[in-house]
Specification:
The complex is a heterodimer of chains A (about 325) and B (about 300). Chain A folds into 2 domains: about 180 residues, D-Maltodextrin-Binding Protein, domain 2; about 130 residues, Periplasmic binding protein-like II (D-Maltodextrin-Binding Protein, domain 2). Chain A is α/β, with parallel strands linked by helices. Helix content of chain A is about 40%, strand content about 20%. Chain B is globular. The termini of chain B are far apart. The chains are: A alpha/beta (about 325), B mainly alpha (about 300). At the A-B interface, helix 1, helix 2, strand 2 and helix 9 of A face helix 3, helix 8, strand 1 and helix 11 of B.
């Protein structure tokens, strides 16, 4: 074979010209575009996978990971049908959607329980109060609270090693809001990582370490970590499906949402997909998250069918709200 | 003490210098081996971690919530299509720019500025290209979050590498060859096309491969322009049964790519996905090596024709 420059460049140029000339063929197939939180991603992925299998490829579902904030940005520009969110929509995002004329429904799909974990060799901190957590994590603790006995005089004088997610994470926002009373207010001198597996390893290999992350990571490493029971004034409560569902795992349990654009919800495939999400809670537990109680799914489905618009949170996150209280509230756009 | 060395001293000195020479060869080999050894170690480690997942299924299945059912079909197809667009765009543009700079451009302050900028572009962080592409290709030109946008972005990214590589290759062609051709009355374009380019093809392709090898592993810019994480269908095939037999709808298609799939699997709570990530990373490495092998083969074919 003899290659020459003409033989290489001519087809390349021809390809290039054709590419410019040929308009992209319109997609005839029904498609659902989802983007947003990395925490909610495994849930959406599971539903998307099953839904496409059920529909035998007639519907295309794509899921992107831009983070909750990034997901809302695209959603409010009208680029996606659904936004995955690990926290309620914020006031600024509501404003962006309003300006673009985009209306939406807020659909809770699962629970996440932020789990505080310690090394199995740690015998003293199997349960902790929210006040103790706050003492450990508040901004004022930086550089001052460095050993366990400073948190509680009954704890040993061992070095306190802290592990937590980085500041871009929705988990960080929620934990700081719930424990320190203000989102993103935290001490800075802890080992932060966006990769939760790093946090797992950190706590696993240090006897005096403490860390926090989403329930799914604890569920996958149950044998190597101990979950701290949280005492919010009514005795210690450990993270479990039962305690999260009945609202006693407080204040560290949070609902996860998808936001669905109203015009998208008028399309049959989107409608069907959201209903599918609200009928198969077992897929949620399969990927390590906690499903809502059946009554909550039923109510969510009713709200969705009735086209209940807007968020019930009014643009700021609320901590320690039960799913029943949440669903009883009025929506706001 | 005499100023003249005795034959003994001369021999000793020579032997010492020869030993030094040998020591340098050994040191160089050791350094080379440790680099290659590191690569081999990495590859073997990935292959061992991912061993359980290799197989036809892994290549032909879409991502899934179940690690043992998940595959990299959409990822490797996406990566291949992006690389195709990148190569098709970056090669002609990069080579043309290099030919102009090397063979045509007068040496003045203006070309000086261009040259410095081309070299600087090679050092711009890839995320910056991603941001540029998000504004320009995705929104301004309306290409959307598509294979086309991703390919163009990576083409921009590797353009400086190709330009610099091509210029080096052009410069390596002896001046005498150009002068001989000019002497026979050839125009500048004829000299370039018939003499300089054929002789420098090997070097140009090396530049292209260096560029593509960098592009294939890039994650940041394609995340920025909106690569998806879960996509369980393939774009329309580029070849169709009906006229005009080629189809360019795939250019507009949404995509995911190997590095994104790997990153997604690494950050999963379920440990079984770590195996998938290792297996996918090994395959990505193998894709890079295969690409390099093809380039070496083409370069060999071209070199055989050169006889100065």
């Amino acid at each position: 074979m003899k290659l020459s420059w003409q033989q290489i460049t001519l087809p390349a140029l021809a390809l290039g010209l054709l590419a410019v000339g040929a308009p992209g063929r319109a997609q005839a197939q029904a498609a659902i575009k989802i983007d947003g939180s990395s925490t909610v991603f495994p849930i959406s992925e599971a539903y998307a996978e099953e839904f496409q299998i059920q529909k035998r490829g007639k519907v295309r579902v794509t899921v992107g990971v831009s983070g909750t904030g990034g997901g809302f940005k695209k959603f409010c520009r009208g680029e996606t049908d659904m936004a995955n969110a690990s926290r309620p929509i914020l006031a600024a995002e509501m404003e962006a959607c309003r300006k673009a004329g985009i209306k939406y429904m807020e659909v809770p799909v699962a629970f996440d329980a932020l789990t505080v974990v310690i090394n199995p060799a740690n015998t003293w901190a199997k349960s902790m109060t929210v006040a103790e957590l706050r003492k450990m994590w508040e901004p004022a603790a930086q550089g001052r609270i460095t050993s366990w006995n400073q948190v509680n005089p009954e704890f040993p004088k061992d070095k306190l090693m802290l592990f937590g997610p980085g500041a871009d994470s929705g988990t960080f926002d929620y934990f700081t809001e719930a424990v320190n009373g203000k989102a993103k207010a935290s001490r800075g001198d802890f080992t932060a990582s966006e990769d939760d597996n790093t946090l797992v390893q950190g706590v696993e290999s240090n006897k005096t370490a403490l860390g926090y992350f989403g329930y799914a990571y604890y569920a996958a490493h149950k044998d190597k970590l101990t979950a701290v029971a949280i005492d919010n004034g009514k005795g210690p409560v450990s993270p479990s499906l039962e305690n999260v569902t009945n609202g006693t795992y407080n204040p560290l349990s949070r609902p996860l949402f998808v936001y669905v654009r109203d015009t998208s919800a008028n399309r049959a495939e989107v409608r069907e997909f959201v209903q599918f999400m609200l009928t198969n809670g077992n897929l949620v537990s399969e990927v390590g998250y906690l499903p809502l109680p059946k009554s909550a799914y039923d109510l969510a489905r009713k709200h969705f069918q009735a086209g209940k618009l807007g968020t019930v949170f009014g643009g700021r996150p609320q901590v320690g709200i039960t799913i029943e209280q949440l669903q009883a509230l009025e929506g706001k756009l | 003490m005499s100023a003249v060395m005795t034959i003994e001293e001369l021999r000793n000195g020579l032997a010492w210098r020869k030993n030094l020479d040998k020591a340098f060869v050994v040191a160089g080999l050791l350094i080379l081996m440790s680099c290659l050894g590191l690569l081999a170690l990495l590859f073997v480690d990935l292959v061992r971690d991912g061993a359980a997942r290799f197989g036809w299924d892994f290549l032909t299945q879409f991502p899934s919530r179940k690690a043992e059912r998940a595959g990299i079909l959409s990822a490797w197809v996406g990566t291949s299509m992006i690389m195709l667009v990148t190569a098709v765009v970056a090669l002609p543009v990069g080579v043309a720019a290099a030919i102009y700079l090397e063979e045509y451009a007068p040496k003045n302050w203006f070309t000086g500025v261009i040259e410095i900028n081309v070299t600087n572009l090679a050092g711009v962080p890839s995320i910056v290209y991603g941001l540029l592409a998000l504004g320009l290709f995705v929104y301004k030109f309306g290409f959307g979050q598509s294979v086309l946008s991703a390919g163009l972005t990576l083409a921009l990214l590797i353009l400086p590498i190709i330009i610099v590589g091509t210029r080096e290759a052009l410069r390596a062609v002896p001046k005498a060859i150009r002068e001989a051709a000019y002497g026979l009355g050839a125009t500048r374009w004829e000299v370039t096309k018939d003499h300089v380019l054929p002789y420098s093809t090997g070097g140009i392709l090396t530049g292209l491969i260096l560029g593509l090898s960098r592009a294939i592993g890039e994650t940041a810019p394609i995340i920025t322009i909106g690569a998806l994480s879960f996509i369980a269908f393939l774009p329309d095939p580029p070849i169709s049964g009906a006229f005009p037999f080629v189809n360019f709808a795939w250019l507009k298609s949404e995509f995911t790519a190997m590095p994104i799939q790997i990153f997604n699997w690494i950050s999963r709570p379920d440990q079984a996905f770590q195996q998938n990530a290792a297996a996918a990373a090994a395959i990505l490495l193998a894709m890079t090596l295969a690409m390099n092998a093809v380039a070496i083969w083409i370069r060999y074919r071209f070199r055989k024709k050169i006889n100065w």
